[in-house]
Amino acid sequence: MPTLRRRPGRHFLLLLLALLLPSPPPARAPASPGPAAALLQALGLREAPRGAPTLRPVPPVMWHLFRRRDPQEARVSPRRTPPGAALRPCHVEELGVAGNIVRHVLDRGASSRPPQPASAAGQCPEWTVVFDLSAVEAAERPSRARLELRFAAAGPAGGWELSVARAAEGAGPGPVLLRQAVPALGTPVRAELLGTAWARNASAPRSLRLSLALRPQVPATCARLAEASLLLVTLDPRLCHPLARPRREAEPAVGSVPGGACRARRLYVSFREVGWHRWVIAPRGFLANYCQGQCALPAALSGPGGPPALNHAVLRALMHAAAPGAAGLPCCVPARLSPISVLFFDNSDNVVLRHYEDMVVDECGCR
Question: How far apart, in whole angstroms, are the C-alpha atoms of residue 314 and residue 365?
């Protein structure tokens, strides 16, 4: 992707991004945060990740969701998105739920669990799984919490029953939340926890401890839990713009030199240049662009192909031409914005896919 010949400094890039990234309006008017703090706030992080995250393979479902939504991936591999299939804002079509944040959370209790627990009194063992959800903001509303389990069966596959219960630290399992029949163990076993582990209209808990049991319906060798994960989808209404329009297929008309009429100027932001490459998985950067140029009367009255203008901008340009001291010229501002998706590690080393509206300037106009 082409870049500016003179690469802007890191502080300049952070400042531009802070102006482009959406952020919720504060209840009061506190002192404006610095550019880096504004970026972290827009990414939903309380603080920058401490050091390098614990790297782990990105689950295929997360790559699939990212490539479906990333504009660059859609242009390179158009077969990922069927023709005419528009992605709705704040909605995860593949999972059929509303949301703009997807997290893949690994079981924190796996490290303390013995590799092959022994069965007691002829019964198969139970496992305790722990999911750290402290990175989920209070404003986020969960729309899906899918438990995914992978088992390794030591004997021939048969009919099984999975039971999930609450597990208090230092105590035995609580009441059973759900029971589910499992025909075979060759594929991942999935169970929906939303509405059972916690209420649908409630915020996600800070930590989720569950007790799992997989019992054969006929006498057979016990299975072993190989991996447990939680796919959590939430909707942050602060970053949701239902009226946002999808990105156009054509590249925006951008210029490379200052001055002239109002139009979009090219600006490519590299995550490596701003020091985020250790925890941002994809993309490596994005074409943010910015608006620059004059909004004199000829520009405000541009015909087809020129920058769009509101009637108010035309009136201001006419007033300025008639009485320069009475009204200033219209300003060159974004007239069409498009989203991007970012795949990254959060402070809990979870793989997070977050969709951001209004991140790329496609068109500029006079206002």
Answer: 11
What value, to the nearest 5°, has the Cα angle with vertex 265 and ends 290 and 310?
65
Backbone angles phi and psi of 352, in degrees to 5: -125, 135
- Residue written as tokens 């030591």? 154
For residue range 130-181, list pLDDT tens digits in order.
999 988 888 899 999 999 999 886 555 568 889 999 888 776 778 899 999 9
Listed in sequence order, the residues at least 6 apart from 178 whose beta carbon sits closer than 8 Å to its beta carbon are: 163, 164, 191, 193, 196
Kindly give the residue spans of alpha helices, DSSP state H, lying in the chain: 10-20, 35-42, 60-69, 71-76, 297-300, 311-322
Helices (H), 2-112: 10-20, 35-42, 60-69, 71-76
Alpha carbon separation from 321 to 102, 297, 324, 326 (Å, rounded): 52, 8, 6, 10
Residue 314 has what DSSP assignment?
H
Query: Which pTM value belongs to this model?
Result: 0.73
**15-26 in b/e burial notation, b at 16+ Cβ within 10 A?**
bbbbebbeeeee
Predicted pLDDT at 165: 93
- The C-alpha atoms of residue 130 and residue 166 are separated, in whole angstroms, by 10
